């Protein structure tokens, strides 16, 4: 089956720093989403990005589907950015289950 | 616009008991998926319901079953609970009209003692 790996697994930043999180997937995908899971367990949608680049405030994401990776950029990090970031991919037609990556646990220090 | 709602938020059961978790999808969504998230891991797909039928199932035993109602809300049932069923259970809704984007509820934390 498809493998979805994220790096780094853990990241500690000082408030105000920038970071790049990576999601590699081993097969072609139809959809890709980035989520932030806050300390209370809520999974919050960040981006729906099967290809291309999107920006939303301090966050932006890029997916290069042909090379099977996606990047999430966090600029000027804040303590509220702490939590776990997951990418999730949906395989091409015939399946309806999203496969989640291994996650990146981010801690932003004040 | 109501998001995905789940109930209850927390639940404590003992081994062998049965549990029912509930989910109402986001307005305009007709598909409900259930995920199990063990501590420190990513969500794992249990199954998906569409048009009141189970459309796809992950690698979970038959003790896990579900239902979808005509109003698109859904239930997850787990029978003969095991200690290993302790986890956060997440419901997600989606729709083809919304590019199958997943939107999650806040989850039900199940503890099996």
Please give a structural write-up.
The complex is a heterodimer of chains A (110) and B (113). With 110 residues, chain A is an all-beta fold. Chain A has no helices and 11 strands. In chain A, strand 9 and strand 10 form a beta hairpin. Chain A is globular, with a radius of gyration of 13 Å. The relative contact order of chain A is 0.34. The model of chain A has no long low-confidence stretch (mean pLDDT 95). With 113 residues, chain B is an all-beta fold. Chain B has no helices and 11 strands. In chain B, strands 2, 4, 5, 6, 9, 10 and 11 form a 7-stranded mixed sheet that branches. Chain B has a 4-stranded antiparallel sheet with strand order 1-3-8-7, with no helix packed on it. The radius of gyration of chain B is 13 Å and the shape is globular. The A-B interface holds A 30-31, 33, 35, 40-45, 48, 86, 88, 90, 95-103 and B 31, 33, 37, 41-45, 48, 50, 55-56, 58, 88, 90, 92, 99-104, 106-107, 109.
Layout of secondary structure:
The complex is a heterodimer of chains A (110) and B (113).
Chain A: E1 4-7, E2 10-14, E3 19-25, E4 31-37, E5 43-48, E6 52-56, E7 59-64, E8 69-74, E9 83-90, E10 98-100, E11 104-109
Parallel strand pairs in A: 2-11
Antiparallel strand pairs in A: 1-3, 3-8, 4-5, 4-9, 6-7, 7-8, 9-10, 9-11
Chain B: E1 5-7, E2 10-13, E3 19-24, E4 31-37, E5 44-50, E6 53-57, E7 64-68, E8 74-78, E9 87-94, E10 103-104, E11 108-112
Parallel strand pairs in B: 2-11
Antiparallel strand pairs in B: 1-3, 3-8, 4-5, 4-9, 5-6, 7-8, 9-10, 9-11
Structural class of chain B: mainly beta
Strand content of chain B: over 45%
What assembly state would you assign to the polypeptide chains in this entry? heterodimer
How is the biggest beta sheet of chain B arranged?
7 strands, mixed
- Report strand % of chain A: over 45%
Write down the overall mean pLDDT of chain B: 96
Rg measurement of chain B, Å: 13 Å
Low-confidence stretches of chain B: none
Q: Treating each run of at least 4 consecutive H or I residues as one helix, how many helices of chain B?
A: 0
Counting DSSP E segments of at least 2 residues, the number of strands of chain B comes to 11
Biggest sheet of chain A, open or closed, and with what strands and sense? 6 strands, mixed
Write down the overall geometry of chain A. Answer: globular
Give helix % range of chain B. under 10%
Query: Roughly how much helix do the residues of chain A carry, as a percent range?
Result: under 10%
């Amino acid at each position: 089956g498809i493998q979805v790996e994220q790096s780094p697994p853990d990241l500690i930043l000082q408030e105000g720093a920038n970071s790049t999180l990576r999601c590699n997937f081993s097969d072609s995908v139809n959809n890709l989403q980035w989520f932030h899971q806050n300390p209370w367990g809520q999974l919050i949608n960040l981006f729906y990005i099967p290809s291309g680049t999107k920006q939303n405030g301090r966050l932006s994401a890029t997916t290069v589907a042909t090379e099977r990776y996606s990047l999430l950029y966090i600029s000027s990090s804040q303590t509220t950015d702490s939590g776990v970031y997951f990418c999730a991919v949906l395989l091409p037609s015939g399946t309806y289950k999203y496969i989640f990556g291994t996650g990146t646990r981010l801690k932003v220090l004040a | 616009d109501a998001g995905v709602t789940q109930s209850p938020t927390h639940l404590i059961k003992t081994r062998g008991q049965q549990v029912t978790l509930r989910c109402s999808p986001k307005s305009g969504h007709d598909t409900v998926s259930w995920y199990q998230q063990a501590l420190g891991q990513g969500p794992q797909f249990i199954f998906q319901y569409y048009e009141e039928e189970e459309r796809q199932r992950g690698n979970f035993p038959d003790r896990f079953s579900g239902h979808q109602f005509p109003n698109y809300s859904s239930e997850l049932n787990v029978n003969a609970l095991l200690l290993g069923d302790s986890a956060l259970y997440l419901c997600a809704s989606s729709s083809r009209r919304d590019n199958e984007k997943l939107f999650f509820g806040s989850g039900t934390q199940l503890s099996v003692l």
